[in-house]
Amino acid sequence: MDFQPKSFPDSPGVYLMKDGSGRIIYVGKAISLRKRLSSYFRAGANLSPKTMALVARIRHIDFLLVSTEKEALLLEESLIKQHRPRYNIVLRDDKRSLLFRLDKAAEYPRLTMTRNVVRDGSVYFGPFASASAARATQKLVGLIFQLRKCSDKSFKNRVRPCLYHQLGQCLAPCVLPVDRVRYHQLVAQVEQFLSGKSRSLVRDLRRQMDEAAQDMRYEQAATLRDQLKAIEATLEGQASVLRDSLDRDVVAVVQLAEDGLGVGMLFVRGGKLLEQKTYHWPGLGPVDAADALESFLAQYYGQQRYIPGRVAVSHPPESASLAEVLAERRGGPCRLGPPRGPDERRLMDMAANLARTAHRHDGAQDVASALEQALGLPAPPLRVECVDISHLGGSGVRAGLVVFENGQERKEDYRAYALPAAEGTGDDYAALAQWAARRTESGPPWPDLLLIDGGRGQLAAVVAALAQALPDQPIECASIAKGPSRRAGELEDRVFRPGRRNPVALKSGSPAMLFLQRVRDAAHRFVIGRGRAATRKRSLTGELVSLPGVGPKTVRLLFDRFGTISAIKQADAAALAAVPGIGPRRAEQLRQALDSLSPAKES
Description:
The protein is an alpha+beta fold. It has 5 domains: 5-83, 3-Layer(aba) Sandwich (GIY-YIG endonuclease); 98-236, no CATH class; 248-361, Ribonuclease H-like superfamily/Ribonuclease H (Nucleotidyltransferase, domain 5, 2-Layer Sandwich); 367-528, 2-Layer Sandwich (Nucleotidyltransferase, domain 5), CATH 3.30.420.340; 546-595, DNA polymerase, domain 1, CATH 1.10.150. Helices cover 43% and strands 18% of the residues. Strands 12, 13, 14, 15, 16, 17 and 18 form a 7-stranded mixed beta sheet that branches. Strands 9-8-7-10-11 form a 5-stranded mixed beta sheet. Helix 3 packs across helix 11 and helix 14 (428-442) packs parallel to helix 15 (456-469). Residues 235-239, 486-490 and 598-603 have low confidence and may be disordered.
């Protein structure tokens, strides 16, 4: 590229570097676009091998002007997530960790697990990188504290206490007159327990137990005694790493010798080390650590992720833009800076040591490298999408799309497509072509590898449709098909690539083949499940529509109010009359008609 400095303004903004095909290969931000871009092309510039490879591929540079450095940071983050450039630090494993959510605005709050933070007044605890650890903690809380377990919909429609009440694990406020003051005392105790303030909770419970015993409320005293025993047993297995109870994350970035960049994260809650996590970008040459960490944190702490009040970092950014962004997303102050005091410095050393081992936890990258070599791909396929077609005798045609990033499922990106134009044809090739057109309408992020469940014919149909819809955006495709043998115990799957008559040489049982089989099986299960759910819903809806005086509109109203056909059948006349548009007289008629239906399973 013939770089001309005068073609770029001396202003803050974001630049987009493109290769010969027009694909964005790098996104960056700068206070001065002219000075920053000139540093790439200046004669004698000390560039890393990776940066030199980037510069050699640049054919055009676009730029977007902004007013402030903060706006540049936000725009850079958005463009990186959208285009996932090859030479950027891209947070491909963006699966949010599990959190506990306590909805304090509810009349009788309950504790649930979630991956999204919503600024609605709820209190969040965590994170838990391990789902099993989160479930174990939730089970423990359920045993110690008698909060309700049922969903809001079940809570409103329940007519008798559930099994948890019989086991002594729920006060059953759904049907019993539970004192709200007593219940909210339990909620406050759960907050103390999950916030790491268990020792003050123990003191409060012991005082309440002594008072109950003195007042001869022996049953309540026994309950408090059991809670104390369970909490004290939990405390024995916890070790404090800080002398204060402030929630904080500790993040270190390390340049790995000849193996890219590593990031180590420690999550400290209530003075105790809760979880740890690593990230690894192989092949990334020497980079500015502060810039790399700033780009990483802007992507990691998204709108729906829990952000603590303190984030200690190994390389603080030069500007305050990132701290302002995190404070806005948190809805409160967020102190971002270097470690303070001996305790935080010790944690930072732990995070740095963890970052140095990031490549050892990167098994997905090994599989991606093997697929890159075996399939002849231009880069490791870290984002893999897989599509499968399902129908029943040509009816109910659906396409199911599953997404894996960095070897892990991204269920929030799963999509099911109804294909009405393919109804009655039984033509998988036509259905796949229609799906490909629908997929291109969704836009990026594009997959590094699109896997099709099928043989050469299915692969050719998708490749042709994609080439027609996206002539300037090549998408690497492959297909996986069952071989001629169906004998038990034999792995006869074959993988095809466009332009090749023979299957790709992928050894049965190898990590790469097992990964492709896992992705294909996930797509098959997903689309079959969606197809069965749609069939079941049509069947249940048809059962209701068959009732006298009930049409599709009434069915929709009933499902919106009650959620399942079981709940509809259990609703009394008063509950039915409360549905808008039904009224008391029609509710009585509907109740009599529902009594004539045979019992059905809840869907």
